[in-house]
Design a protein that fits this description.
The complex is a heterodimer of chains A (301) and B (135). With 301 residues, chain A is of the alpha/beta class. Chain A is 31% helix and 28% strand. In chain A, 39% of the residues are buried. The chains are: A alpha/beta (301), B mainly alpha (135).
C-alpha cells in the first residue's frame, strides 16, 4: 500500500433505521498520520458511521474503505490494524485488570508490554482489581490501555471522554498524544468523534461536522480558525455600514458583533473607515465553529 | 521557557510555537546551547498534536534558529540568523509596517511610537542582561 493512500475513505455512505436516515450520503477521507475530528450533535449519525467502519453495521448504500480494504470482506485484516474505544466500555466482570489485558492481548499479533506497564502506573490501576469494581473513568482508562498497547495504525475513538471527570479527560488526551504517537507518528492515525471539542482542539488536524447524516463542513483546523472570525466594534455613534458577506451581525446600542467567513479583512476595513472607538478581531475556536454551524447551514442555503 | 497556545489568535498553531521560541531566543528566555523541550513532553503539556510541534521545530531549523543534534535534541544556534543583512531588513520592514499601521489606527503619533520602540529595545536588553547576571 502506498503510504499516502487514505486510511479511511467513505463515499456516499447511507444507513437507515426503518424510515429514519441516520447517515445520508456522507463522504470523507482520512489521511495517514492525521488526527481527524468528527463532530456532530447527539443523533447526527456519528456512531452509525463508526459502526459501518468496523462492520458492526452494514451500509445501505455507498462505500467504506479502511486501509483500502472493505471491512465487510476483510473484517479480520481491518480489525487487526485498528483499535476502537467506544463511549460505553464493557468488560467481563469476573476478570481482573490483568486478566482483561491478557485476554485483549491474546487477539493481537503485537503487544507493547512497556507501554502497558507505564500506563497502568500512570493511571494507578491495580492489576488485581476486578473489572466489575472499576469506576467509569477507570474502565475507560483500561480500554485505552487495551487500544494503545497493540500500537495499531488507526485509533477510533467514539465519544471517549464523555462522562469522565476533567482530570481523567486530560490524562486521556495526553496519553493519546504521548503514548500512542510516541513511535512512528507518521503511521499513527486518530479518528475521534466527540462533542467535547475544546479538549481535543490542539490534537485535531482536520475535521468534519456532520448534521442529520450529512456533511456540513470539512476543513483543516488551522484554515478554519483563519476563516471564521468574530469581530467586535464600538462606535461613538452607530454609522451606516455595508456588511454584506458577514455570516451574522448582532448589534446592541453602539456595539456590533460580526461573524466573518473568510472576509474579515474586508469587514475590518469597512469598519475602520468609520473610526471605531474600539475594534477587536479574534478567531473562533473549533467548538465555536461547531456551535455556529446552524448559521453556516443557512449561509449555504 | 514556557510556551502557550492561543486558538483565538487565528495564527496556525505551529507558527505560534515558532514565534514564541524566536521571541524567547531574542529576549534571553532561551540561550545559545540550551536545549529546547523534547517534542513528546511538550506536545503532551500543550495538548497539541506531536506533528504540530515537530513541524514548528523543522521550521525553526530551516530558519537557522535551532539545530538538531542526533540523539541529544534541539538546541538554540550560536548565531541564530542565517539571513543576509538586506534579507533581514526586508523581513523586519514588513513587521515594522504592521506596527506602524496599528499605531496609526490607535492614533499614536510619531514621537510616541519612536519612544515606545526605544523603550522596548531597552527592555529586551535589560532582560538579556538580567538573565546573564543570574548565572
Amino acid at each position: 500500500m502506498n503510504t499516502d493512500s487514505p486510511i479511511i475513505e467513505i463515499q456516499n455512505l447511507s444507513r437507515r433505521y426503518g424510515k429514519l436516515d441516520a447517515v445520508n450520503g456522507l463522504s470523507l477521507t482520512v489521511r495517514p498520520g492525521k488526527c481527524y475530528g468528527f463532530f456532530g450533535r447527539n443523533g447526527a449519525g456519528k456512531t452509525t458511521t463508526i459502526k459501518c467502519l468496523l462492520n458492526l453495521l452494514r451500509p445501505d448504500s455507498g462505500s467504506v474503505r479502511v486501509f483500502g480494504l472493505d471491512p465487510r470482506k476483510d473484517e479480520v485484516a481491518v480489525k487487526s490494524r485498528l483499535a476502537y474505544v467506544p463511549d460505553m466500555v464493557a468488560f467481563y466482570p469476573w476478570m481482573t485488570v490483568r486478566d482483561t489485558l491478557e485476554y485483549l492481548a491474546s487477539f493481537r499479533k503485537h503487544w507493547n508490554g512497556e507501554i502497558e506497564a507505564d500506563l497502568l502506573k500512570r493511571f494507578q490501576l491495580d492489576p488485581k482489581q476486578k473489572a466489575s469494581h472499576l469506576s467509569k473513568g477507570q474502565r475507560t482508562q483500561l480500554a485505552l490501555i487495551g487500544a494503545i498497547c497493540p500500537e495499531p495504525e488507526l485509533l477510533v475513538l467514539d465519544e471517549p471522554t464523555s462522562g469522565l471527570d476533567p482530570i481523567v479527560r486530560r490524562e486521556f488526551i495526553e496519553t493519546v498524544i504521548g503514548a500512542y504517537q510516541s513511535s512512528d507518528p507518521g503511521r499513527r492515525t486518530v479518528f475521534v468523534s466527540t462533542h467535547l471539542i475544546s479538549e481535543f482542539e490542539g490534537l485535531i488536524d482536520e475535521f468534519t461536522i456532520i448534521e442529520q447524516g450529512r456533511e456540513l463542513l470539512t476543513m483543516e483546523a488551522d484554515a478554519a480558525r483563519d476563516r471564521f472570525r468574530k469581530i467586535r466594534a464600538r462606535f461613538a455613534e452607530m454609522p451606516k455600514l455595508n456588511l454584506t458577506g458577514a455570516l451574522s451581525v448582532k448589534t446592541s446600542g453602539r456595539e456590533l458583533e460580526i461573524l466573518a467567513n473568510g472576509n474579515s479583512e474586508q469587514l475590518l476595513a469597512e469598519l475602520k473607515t468609520h473610526s471605531p472607538e474600539e475594534l477587536r478581531c479574534e478567531s473562533l475556536s473549533l467548538e465555536e465553529i461547531f456551535v455556529a454551524s446552524d448559521i453556516l447551514k443557512k449561509a449555504k442555503g | 521557557m514556557l510556551l502557550q497556545i492561543d486558538f483565538k489568535s487565528g495564527k496556525p498553531v505551529y507558527l505560534q510555537l515558532v514565534d514564541q521560541i524566536r521571541y524567547a531566543a531574542a529576549s534571553g528566555g532561551l540561550r545559545t546551547g540550551e536545549p529546547l523541550p523534547s517534542i513528546r513532553p511538550l506536545a503532551e503539556e500543550l495538548r497539541v498534536n506531536r506533528n504540530t510541534v515537530a513541524k514548528a521545530y523543522a521550521e525553526l531549523e530551516n530558519q537557522g534558529v535551532i539545530e538538531t543534534i542526533p540523539g541529544k535534541g534541539c538546541f538554540l544556534r550560536e548565531s541564530n540568523s542565517p539571513f543576509t543583512k538586506s534579507a533581514r531588513a526586508k523581513i523586519l520592514t514588513k513587521e515594522i509596517d504592521e506596527a506602524v499601521v496599528a499605531a496609526h489606527h490607535l492614533q499614536v503619533d510619531r514621537d510616541a511610537f519612536l519612544a515606545l520602540v526605544k523603550e522596548r529595545l531597552d527592555s529586551f536588553e535589560r532582560k538579556v542582561k538580567e538573565k546573564s547576571d543570574n548565572d
